[in-house]
Amino acid sequence: MSGNILYNDLSGYYDLMCADIDYLAQSHCAHRLQQLFGNGGRRHLDLACGTGPHVRHCIDAGYASSGLDINQPMLDRAAVRCPEAHFSRQDMCAFTADEPQDLITCFLYSIHYSGGLDRLQACIATAHRALASNGLFCFNAVDKGRIDNASFVSHTARHADGLFSFSSGWNYPGQGEQQSLKLCIERSVAGETQVWHDEHPMVAVSFDELQTLLQPYFEVHVLEHDYEKLIPWNGTSGNALFACVKR
């Protein structure tokens, strides 16, 4: 089942799948990074916004927030969550913004949905064009050389429609610019279980390669993947936060 079909089918359960994600901490971290490195402005755009939780938290923090995603059912739910925000169905590698943005975010490793290095570079260039002077592009990423193919993250959540189990893990074959995010979703209700398996193609990149792509456009700060403590990346961990200030 393709990623779009899966998410169209289960868009109503997407927030359950992400129930263990601390959207508030991520949004607050982006605000702190904007204060530390950015221009202090309050115009915010969330790439691959899904159902809009980051947009909601940023609005509550005083931002004029908007979001874009390629999945219309997700955007429909985002509009319900954030009726005061503007949402648009756009490709994050080739989007337009109505006005210059001060802060652009792209969490949940969604930068990897670019698919290939050429589209990743296009995403970076497009974000750069959309930012105001000294605007901040903030996202998290995973280093292809530090992926453990045997590592999976799992959690369960109860819903009126049944008991759901979600598991996901990165897989990198060891060479090339393609990795995948493997997903398994199970729903159990009335003694019956439905299972969805999916594998999302993602761009594979090392942090060195990523910084090389970013540096012509941005002053790049690489930080540990810790939303509470803003400390420089230690050079060994496989996940990191990137705070990129428009040159």
UniProtKB/TrEMBL annotation:
Record-level GO BP terms: methylation
Any one GO MF annotation of this record: methyltransferase activity
Domain Methyltransferase, chain residue ranges per copy: 45-135
InterPro entries assigned to the protein according to its UniProt record, in alphabetical order: Methyltransf_25 (IPR041698), SAM-dependent_MTases_sf (IPR029063)
CDD domains assigned to the protein according to its UniProt record, in alphabetical order: AdoMet_MTases
Keywords from the named record: Methyltransferase, Transferase
Protein name per UniProt: Methyltransferase domain-containing protein
